[in-house]
Write a structure and sequence with these properties.
This protein has helices at 2-14, 20-34, 69-77, 94-108, 115-124, 130-161, 165-203; strands at 48-52, 58-60, 65-67, 82-86. By secondary structure, the protein is an alpha+beta fold. The chain folds into two domains: 2-38 and 120-203, no CATH class; 48-108, no CATH class. Strands 3-2-1-4 form a four-stranded mixed beta sheet.
Length: 204
């Protein structure tokens, strides 16, 4: 299904169809058909509440102490369901805190979001395609997580039965590589197509 959708993208481009919505919808359909409809997250019986006080400190109501952004990251890694609430306004500011965690990680180590990726994301804010980009990135990440889980399971099976584990692992990697390449190429191509269309409109 994914391969069929990618072929459709090439057909649109060959015919000179530059309407971005058609391409994005094709990719959405491909990803939605590929991704199994399973829960990504185990929801706890109670959502853990983190209060943010006016002094900008974060207070974990479960362990009754202040915590850092790195400890917020640990909760994410452990799949703990939590919300960060502004103690004064009672607003849910979880997303804002998660962005701070990402910023801290991007500055501290090897970044995931390269400068060119950030520039492209910024260009879509306020654009008619903003929602489509958000949805596409979300589905792409879910696809990546699904494939990662499947790969780990395949590795366990290979190491348990293969006479030559290293050779078997190489074959397994070769089998999964084309899918990653296709998803990455399509994402970059669509972002590039969006930029090219905008450049052409600015030049007219």
């Amino acid at each position: 299904m994914l391969q069929h959708a990618l072929h459709q993208n090439e057909r649109f481009l060959h015919l000179g169809v530059c309407h971005a919505d058609l391409i994005w919808q094709t990719n959405f359909f491909a990803l939605q058909q590929y991704i199994p409809t399973v829960s990504r997250r185990q929801t706890a019986s109670e959502t853990r509440i983190i209060n943010k006080y006016p002094n900008r400190r974060l207070y974990d109501t479960v362990i009754s102490r202040y915590i850092t952004l790195d400890e917020i990251r640990q909760l994410v890694l452990k799949n703990v369901d939590f919300k960060v609430i502004d103690k004064r306004s009672k607003d849910d500011i979880t997303r804002s805190i998660l962005l701070q965690v990402i910023m801290e990680q991007e500055e501290a180590g090897t970044p995931i979001l390269r400068e060119e990726v950030l520039l492209n994301i910024i260009r879509f804010y306020g654009d008619s395609m903003q929602h489509s980009v958000s949805h596409y990135l979300e589905l792409s990440m879910e696809l990546f997580i699904d494939q990662q889980a499947q790969f780990k399971e395949q590795v366990k099976q290979v190491l348990g039965s293969a006479g030559n584990p290293l050779h078997a692992l190489k074959e397994l990697a070769d089998q999964n590589l084309p899918l990653w390449r296709k998803v990455r190429q399509e994402l970059l191509k669509n972002i590039g197509l969006r930029g090219d269309s905008k450049d052409r409109s600015d030049g007219t």
